[in-house]
Amino acid sequence: MSEGSVTRNRLWAMLAALALALGGVAWTGCGDDNDNDSQQVERSAEDAQSEGEGAADEARDKGEEALDDAQKQVEESGDDAQERLDEAKEEGEEKLDEAKEEIERYAP
């Protein structure tokens, strides 16, 4: 073999290797669509998770607010009941005092 044919064979081998390398690059480039799809799915899942967490936080806040309102109503009704109890006790003591006076007036 002559030196020219060896160089030509090496050139063809390098071109074949280059073609294989470019084919490999093109093949891996095709995977970008799947990667983009995967990234979009991941982003959508993260967005859904964030929205879910936000909704859970909002629901918790509303629940706490409702509990606070209910507690205030219980306290207010307890205060009202205590006031009525105190008034009834005071009225009962007044009636008892009146009854004692009546008894003393008629007692010998």
Estimate what percentage of residues fall within beta strands.
under 5%
User: What's the tally of helices?
Assistant: 1
Q: In one word, what is the shape?
A: rod-shaped
Oligomeric description of these chains? single chain
Distance between the termini: 156 Å
Number of strands: 0
Q: What is the CA-atom radius of gyration, in angstroms?
A: 46 Å
Main sheet characteristics: none
Helix share bin? over 70%
Mean pLDDT: 77
Topology summary:
Layout: H1 3-106
Notes on the structure:
It is a single chain. The chain is rod-shaped and about 155 Å long. 96% of the residues lie in helices and 0% in strands. The protein is an all-alpha fold and 108 residues long. The protein has one helix spanning 3-106. The protein has 1 helix and no strands.
List its traits.
about 110 residues; 1 helix; rod-shaped
Summarize the structure.
The chain is built from 1 helix and no strands. The protein is mostly helical and 108 residues long.
